[in-house]
Amino acid sequence: MTQKIIILDFGSQTTQLIGRRVRELDTFCEILPYNKFPKDDSSVIGVILSGSPYSVHDPEAFKVDLSQFVGRIPVLGICYGAQFISHTLGGKVEKADSREYGRANLEMVDTTNPLFKWFEQHSQVWMSHGDTITAIPEGFKVIGSTADVVNAAFASTTQPIWAVQFHPEVFHTLQGKQLLKNFVVDICGSRQEWSAASFVDSTVAELKAQLGNDRVILGLSGGVDSSVAAVLLNRAIGQNLTCIFVDHGMLRKNEFTQVMNDYKVLGLNVIGVDASEKFFGDLAGVTDPEQKRKIIGRDFVEVFNAEAKKITDAKWLAQGTIYPDRIESLNITGKVIKSHHNVGGLPKEMRLQLCEPLKWLFKDEVRRVGRQLGMPEHLITRHPFPGPGLAVRILGDITPEKVRILQDADDIYIRALREWGLYDQVWQAGAILLSTVRSVGVMGDERTYEHPVALRAVTSTDAMTADWAHLPYDFMAKVSNEIINKVRGVNRVCYDISSKPPATIEWE
User: Fold this and answer.
1) Strand, coil or helix: 154
2) Bond preceding residue 472 cis, omega within 30 of 0
3) How far is the C-alpha of 275 from the C-alpha of 283, rounded, in Å?
4) Are 505 and 391 in contact (CB under 8 A)?
5) Phi, psi angle pair for 409, to nearest 5°
6) 30, 87, 100, 169: which is the annotated catalytic residue?
């Protein structure tokens, strides 16, 4: 039976990061809403309570019945989780005089406690809370303090319960990985059996058992997730997998041909559909970003379904859905606030069952699985690319000429990133055509009145937050000069230095 850590999500922005840190310890974990602890917990070796935007004193604060697992299974409370443990078991939580946010140092660390094994004194941690624990419950002892937070970490003397008011999962807690390893491996007893190799072996076996000799259809995008899902399925069922790759005309330059060649090398059975004429026709004159997305989404489903219906004996639809797509994101009302295009259900007329071989993986794990499957590195490290393609990187209406301009500019930019060894240092990069704007320029003693292009490159770990990439000035100068000189229709290049938040990675 696969061991797993259960992470109960109380609405923290860093809950997924806790999950990724646990997976980095080769341990399977499952993120569940705070009130969905599994009835069958025979494989659960530990429970982590996440942070939350709430105070434990708020009437609408999320609460869990600790008796479901406390005393039987090791528990670690983080931030709100720690405060909830203290508040529920008889301690005292009060509003701090000032919000405790940012870097702090553990001035006292009890390194004899298993949670802090191998810890150094004066270790930096990251605080982010408005309340503070002023008294810990009876039967607990303090095992870590900062200059301002006496009860920064505490543990039960009689039960396997630990709690920290800081966030070990974030980068700024310098020994956070060690703390989580101490909990997951030493305290909970993880055998550390979750790996890309074990995932491939077990998933291929499960897919063979699940699908048998059934025919499966998969919609390919050229991106990492759908490509890895396709190779994994191909290993399990071979030619019983049929992939459909729709070209809506707004892919990157030569991408349709390149991706089809890549899939051929991988031995995939792929049907390529050039539907660009339909998409351009339906998008003519449309400028509203949301309307553009809806038209592209609708047309994609129509084209995909038309091809899928030709495969009359198909019984399954496979998708490259990954774990972050499925994790429930809760607002203060407890309602789902974000849905993903891969988790919206199947069109009724297709009458297909759903197969999602990557549904338990985070993005970095998908890439590790791709390498384990022997996929080409350029497919595995490919930057995220929006489903609507360049349509959401062209401000204003969409025409084949505008797409041509942006494809040429984007191609110069991406090729240069690779040539300068910068491509793998950024999370996502691309060019944006400001087609609603024209600027004056001079080329060959002649006045020009053409469009500006904005370049975007960000660093990130999960796209929830992102910072603009500090690319070298020499690189930017070369790219700008090449785009202006070689791309007809562009006479100005800008660089977007906005972070997310408040900006988004894409412009539309």
Assistant:
1) strand
2) no
3) 13
4) no
5) -65, -45
6) 169
Q: What is the pLDDT of residues 246-291, one digit of tens each?
A: 999 999 999 999 989 999 999 999 999 999 999 999 999 999 989 9
3-state secondary structure 467-496: EECCCCHHHHHHHHHHHHHHCCCEEEEEEC
User: Among the options 29, 87, 100, 167, which is catalytic?
Assistant: 167
Range 151-154 contact pairs with CB under 8 angstroms and sequence separation of 24 or more: 151/86, 152/104, 152/106, 152/125, 153/106, 153/109, 153/115, 153/116, 154/82, 154/86
Active site annotation includes 482: no
Interior CA angle at 336 toward 63 and 369, to 5°?
Answer: 100
Q: From CA 137, how far away is CA 149, in angstroms rounded?
A: 16
- Chain segment 90-123, per-residue pLDDT in tens: 999 998 765 667 889 999 999 999 999 999 888 9
The verdict on whether 169 is a catalytic residue reads yes
Q: How large is the angle between the packed helices 363-372 and 224-237, nearest 10 degrees?
A: 40
Contact 322, 222 (CB under 8 A): no
DSSP per residue, 56-123: TTSTT-----GGGTTTTS-EEEETHHHHHHHHHTT-EEEEEEEEEEEEEEEEEE-TTSGGGTTPPTTE
The span from the CA of 267 to the CA of 246, in Å, is 18
Q: How many residues does the chain have?
A: 508
Query: Is 243 a residue of the active site?
Result: no
Tokens for 432?
Answer: 């944006």
CA–CA separation, 370 and 372 (whole Å) = 5
